[in-house]
Amino acid sequence: MEKYRATHFQIDCINNSYPGFTNGTKWSGWECPYFTKETALQLAKDLQTINVKCTFNEEQQAFILDEGYEDGILTTVTVERITYNNEEIEVYDIGSGYWVWSEDKTDNSPAKEN
User: Fold this and answer.
1) Are 4 and 15 in contact (CB under 8 A)?
2) Distance in angstroms (rounded) separating the CA atoms of residues 11 and 98
3) Is 81 exposed, middle or buried (0-12, 13-18, 19+ CB in 10 A)?
4) What is the pLDDT of residues 43-73, one digit of tens each?
5) Complete DSSP assignment for the chain
């Protein structure tokens, strides 16, 4: 079983920090974060500032990303379950493995997720 820890993440194009989880996996040296639905909804709202449409589909329990590609390709991010502090948590790995995420070591607030 992979071990997860709570921390904060930032993305290169948005001036905000998001609480999430990591198991230490990296993509090309960048973080691969997981977020609760609550945090992912805030991220979806913030993504609008950079013209990325991110909506939550209740029926699919998934986030749908439209990054404005000419070919109309959409990215679907489905719910995953991880174990953190012996509790199963539903999370979404928005941008994990293809966006430039880094751990925000300047955020001193607790990385507590609901």
Assistant:
1) no
2) 11
3) exposed
4) 999 999 988 899 999 999 999 988 777 777 7
5) ----EEEEEEETTSS--EEEEE-S-EETTEE--BB-HHHHHHHHHHHGGGT-EEEEETTTTEEEEE---TT---EEEE-EEEEETTEEEEEB-TTTTTS-EEE-TT--S-----
Tens digits of pLDDT across the chain (114 residues): 579 999 999 998 898 999 999 999 999 999 999 999 999 999 999 999 988 899 999 999 999 988 777 777 788 999 999 999 999 999 999 988 888 999 998 865 555 544
Q: Taking CA 102 as the corner, what is the angle to CA 112 and CA 46, rounded to the nearest 5 degrees?
A: 70
Query: Residue 33's Cα: distance from chain center in Å?
Result: 5
**Count of residues in the chain:** 114
Cα-to-chain-centroid distance, residue 78 = 11
